[in-house]
Each structure stands twice: as structure tokens, then as C-alpha cells.
Amino acid sequence: MNYAALSTALARLDDLRCFSELSENKITAVKHLLTLDLNVAGPAFEWANKISNFSPGRTYDYACSIVLLYGVLERFIEEIAEEFITNVVKVAPTYDALPDKLREAHFDLTVSHLQRTRGSRYDGRYDAIQIVDAFSGCLSGKIPYRFIVESMRYHTSNFRVPMVDEFFGRIGIESASRRCVKTDEFDAFLKSYDRIASNERPETVLDLINDLVVRRNEVAHGDTSNVLAHSEIIPYCDMLSAYCKGLTTVINQTFINYIAKYGTDHGLPIAVYNHNIVCIYSRGVELIPGSLLLIKNSSNNWYSVKVMQVQVNSETVTNAPAGIDTPVGLKIDGKCKKSYKIKSIIF
Length: 347
Known about the structure:
With 347 residues, the protein is an alpha+beta fold. It has two domains: 4-259, no CATH class; 263-345, Elongation Factor Tu (Ef-tu), domain 3 (Beta Barrel). It is built from eleven helices and eight strands. Strands 1, 2, 3, 4, 5, 6, 7 and 8 form an eight-stranded antiparallel sheet that branches. Strand 4 and strand 5 form a beta hairpin. It is globular, with a radius of gyration of 25 Å.
């Protein structure tokens, strides 16, 4: 599945890398301009001279980068958690069908949310009446139920790695950072920096994430005594990028494992061609381009793919006929084997 939180985070990290590189280039340009004759450089010489004599400039660049980097982390954590919960709620037919941990956290955080509405600085989207009405419907078994996801974003601590794990753990995503480090996405980052995660405590390799939080707090309190060079910001961007990608993989796998029990079982494929064209019985499901398929591989792990094209009787159609169990050919955006079990999810 695609998560908007990841796309947003990666785009902002690309901007921060660009900012760091341009800031480094600015230093080189200033040094070059100061070597030129004033008559040749003209106004650019005066600008370069002011830049070189403005010693706080580097500190301001550093503070800006650190605050924005931490902002990427915090926004990503909050938004991908909200996307995960929203998707789970779409699939769960009743409030009681939600994962136990998610319901427990929802109870506590809804009460906290309700208390915060009394504060003069409260600026949430929901007032006390709306929160109570939705929560009452959840507890009474109302169908459909209304789950206010905004309550679940609340936290009081900065996102050091242990806090990230606690934040995700309360909604049913256990050991998120430890599992993240073991993903292919994070492993690629480690290899690019010639680093290895320990088997005992793999999450300790996330040292730059914790250091980023420390630096953000220092900057917020006016302490800029430990300024990094522009080039030293890049590894923070790279680790945060890998962390976001790895966490997304962990979150998506947790979601897939949860929703698999609600999928329509299509059994084993009738046939598979080129690994990306599968033929199955529709079981009456109105499969369309964009439909989500869950596939269980030989290791009994589920993964998801999207339907790109639907064919019935060798003709491309907009959808498989609803309510009719018919053989369909599906072109998917992933790979499958004839021995893999397939389910479909509509939400």
C-alpha cells in the first residue's frame, strides 16, 4: 500500500538535502568571490564580504536544519499512525473487532482528548459533544461506529527511539524500531554507510535519530554550542529517510496481517503467467483496477499487491461482475506463484 505520510517525509528530506548542499556551495562561492578584484566582482564582492563577516549565519542554517529535520520525523510518525488506524477502522466491521491494544489506547486517549477540550488553548477539530457522541457509539456497539482518529495522535514527549516504539506499541505495532532495522530499506542504508546492526540490540544503530532529538531540544532552548557543518547534516537526512521507509514496511506488514482475516479467499491461482498475471475465481467480488490483493508466500507471510488490469474471457473489462463467481485474469504490480494463496480486500 502507498502511504502519503512517507511520500511527504521523503520529499521534505530531499528539500533539506538540497538546502544543505546549496549552503555548502554558498560557502565555496563566497570564498571565490573574495579572491576577485572589487572592480570585477562589483556588488557580489560586497555581498560576499558581508556573508563572510556574519558569523551567526552558519548557526542559523544549522538551527533551521535541525528544527526542520525533527519536524519531518514528528509529522511522519503522527501521520502514518493516523493512516494505519484509519485503514484498520475501514476494514473492522465493528468497534469490538479492532485490535485489543488499539481499543485500549483509544479509551485512554479519548478521555484525555475530552479533558483537553476544557483548556483555553484547545484548537482541535472536535468539541466535547462530538467526542462523547462518537465514543458512546463505539462502546455501545453502534454500527457503523465513528472513530475519532485525532485523539490517537496525542503525545507529550519528543520522539526519541523508545518513544517512537511506545507510540506505535499502543496501537498494536510492536517493537517497531527493532523490526525497522531488519528491513531491506534500512539494511540498504547501513550498507551505504558501512555499518552493521548488532543482533542483540539492533535498534542501537539508530543513534542519529536520538541525537537529532537532543539537538532539537538544545536549539529550542537557545543552545547552539555544538553546530554541525552543512555536510554533516546529510547523514541525518539519510538515516531519517531509511527510518521512515523501514517503519512504513513494518506498519504495512502489521496492517496486512490484521486485514487478512477479513479478505475474500480465492484459494490458489488457476494459473500464473510471467509472475505478474494471475488467474483466479472471482468469488463474486467486483475486482477492479486498484483493488488490493493479499498473497501468502511459501514462508506463510502475507504481502499486498494492486490490481492493474482485469480481464474476463480474454477481454479487458472495467470490473469483474459482482455476485458472479467467474474466472478472471488480473495483472498485478507485484509477483506471484501458482503455489501462493490469494485473498482480496475491498475497503
